[in-house]
Amino acid sequence: MHSDIFVCLSTGGFIWDFKDQGLRKMCNTTGREYFAYGGDFGEEKHDAQFCINGLFFPDGVAHPAVHECRYLQQPIKIAPLNNIKRIKISAEDNTPVQVELSVKLRNGCLLYTIDWEWSIISDRTTPLAQGTFEVHEGKDKTIVRIDDLLNDDPSFDLARTQWLNLLGRINRDTKWCKKGHVIVTEQYPLDVVGSKEIPNVMKPVSTHCVIVTEGNSSQLSLSTTQHQIAFDKESGLLTELSSPTGKNMFMKPFTPSFTRAETDNDRGGVEVVRSFFDWPIIIDFAFHKGQIEKSLRLNDGLVDLNRSFSSYWNSIGLSASNPPKINCTHFEARKHGDKSLVVGSKSLVLSASGKSLMSVNTQYEIRPRAQIKMSFCIKPSELLHNIPSLPRIGSCFVLHPSLCRISYFGRGPWENYPDRKSSAQIGLWNTTPLEMHVDYIVPSENGNRTDCRWVCFLDEDGSGLMLISNEDLFCISASLWSREELDKAKHTTDLESRLNGKHGLHVNIDHALMGVGGDVGWNPCVYEQYRVKSNKQYTFGISLIPILPGQEPAMVARRNASKFWKTT
């Protein structure tokens, strides 16, 4: 349940179950243990994974959703006065400033048992400023005093948005937790205004240019000072971006992406309930079998609110196990000024049966240092207009196994989705594909991070690839398993064991991604505002920037991003 709904409820949200109801079982093929569910013990009548719906795995390990529940149910709400969305403070003359906050108790929490901390963060590895503050019993307001914002640091840019982080810790051992346990967290965007002149961090104009090294009927090859770039003319896709050592960072090309490995909530609909009607005991779900059978059919193109998202996707050709094909209809390359080159392609997205699902126009502007500015325009066909939501609008590709050190500036550190991100804070996070992966009992879409400004994939030497938003924030995920593998797997043991640095990274960069829902498991439960509309045109952009050893990703991002400091 997302925060917009939760805070409106007088009694809070009710959750079942506490744990996934699975039992340990040994896989005879792999020799690995997994959690079994309905049907795994030879029984004919069962509800499959319907009771794998807890906050914790059967062994007590927490799902990422536990963080969201903790945040939404925290006992104290501390926020800027008048519920303003952004806090503005002045840093002129580096004088201390004060931020007034309202304090609202949600239950009988004793304020004297909590120590409070504040910090101001950006894309740096350490806070810009930090300190403590107090919240007194019986008071509905408090003040955070900010003494120093590193205003004398020549690299500190007052024009960029910072974030104010607030944190409350239990200051003693209790019967239910140890001293230092975090009980309250909040984060608010902070606009720092001042008279300081912003330093010029732009690189000098390059004297190098992009050179066409090979052009034939099937491939366009380009060369810059230290990198090789290649496009496949038949598909219109970017297939190569090589490092200075000659290693192609792409194992599979940069491809438009519209499917996802189905979650249980994606499958939630009358199809799930229909299987119950063969049970000896009929469960009343407020509609009878005839209505269910009718709702499984398309009603002259009208959207059936009880039909699952996945049934629409599979029937129309947006299945992750049988994804649509990209058919390039036009490819061209032309000079852009004296030093750059522009590559353009037009493509149709075709279902397995040959139906046109979308049109995709892509433009690549290749600059002398192998920076590639990509712009996309994606338009769903009328065939998709009656689908309640698309899975995603974005791009996918597979990176070289060595690029497994991931840094990103977005929400983290745990998995989060558009409708489940309140607990995840904006920050600079470091991770790996295995750390991003969530080993759900039924493998599915997982590991996403929202509201990202940039992401960087590096090898052990510190070289690699950065992706920066040209304007809008984006979602990222990186997995050692493809979405086809995740979609087909029924148990964790269906996925072979893989290691960071040994297998390619399946990366998703999404402009729009449908939420995961969670109210119930037998009805489509993703709220309207978290769906990806199927009747609108999408325009967005991403820039690819090679990273060389010794370069700091955050500094590279500052030099090259246009509006990645947009705040949500």
Overall description:
- The chain is mainly beta and 568 residues long.
- 10% of the residues lie in helices and 35% in strands.
- The chain is built from nine helices and 28 strands.
- The strands form six sheets. A nine-stranded antiparallel sheet has the order 16-17-18-19-28-25-24-21-22. Strands 4-10-9-6-7 form a five-stranded mixed sheet, with no helix packed on it. The protein has a five-stranded antiparallel sheet with strand order 15-20-27-26-23.
- A hairpin with a 5-residue loop joins strand 17 (340-350) and strand 18.
- The chain is globular.
List keywords for this structure.
single chain, 568 residues, mainly beta, five-stranded mixed beta sheet, disordered C terminus
Return Rg in Å: 26 Å
Q: From the structure provided, what is the oligomeric state, counting identical versus distinct chains?
A: single chain
Low-confidence stretches: 197-205, 279-303, 563-568
Task: Report helical residue fraction.
Answer: under 10%
Most strands sheet: 9 strands, antiparallel
The end-to-end distance, rounded to whole angstroms, is 19 Å
Strand content is 35-45%
Basic shape = globular
Secondary structure: number of strands: 28
In short:
This protein is mostly beta strands and 568 residues long.
